[in-house]
Amino acid sequence: MIPEFAGTAESVSRDEGLYRPHPGDVFKRRCLSKSRLKQPEIAALMGISPKHLSRFINGHVSVQIELARKLESVTNISAAAWLNYQNAYDLYKTSSSKPAKQLIYG
User: Fold this and answer.
1) Which residues form a coiled coil (predicted)?
2) How confident is the model over 70-92, as pLDDT tens digits?
């Protein structure tokens, strides 16, 4: 039997204005800090240049599908998660520039 409250779940979302780190920060804290490999070695494993990896870590490169797949291959964190980190960061960065809400219906 399904509990009564199970069918009445409310949608819960986090305010876009709350701080979200750049995926490069996530990579630095969750992956790079735990690895004994140097950045050039990690870049070689990923098939990217050390400069590109450095630019990603420092927040100058956004995660696109290709980079997300490469990150997945060396971190065991899904490409979808990396893309989600990027989307959350992008929404956070643009949260103050939202236009006034005016619905097109109802």
Assistant:
1) none
2) 999 999 999 999 999 999 999 99
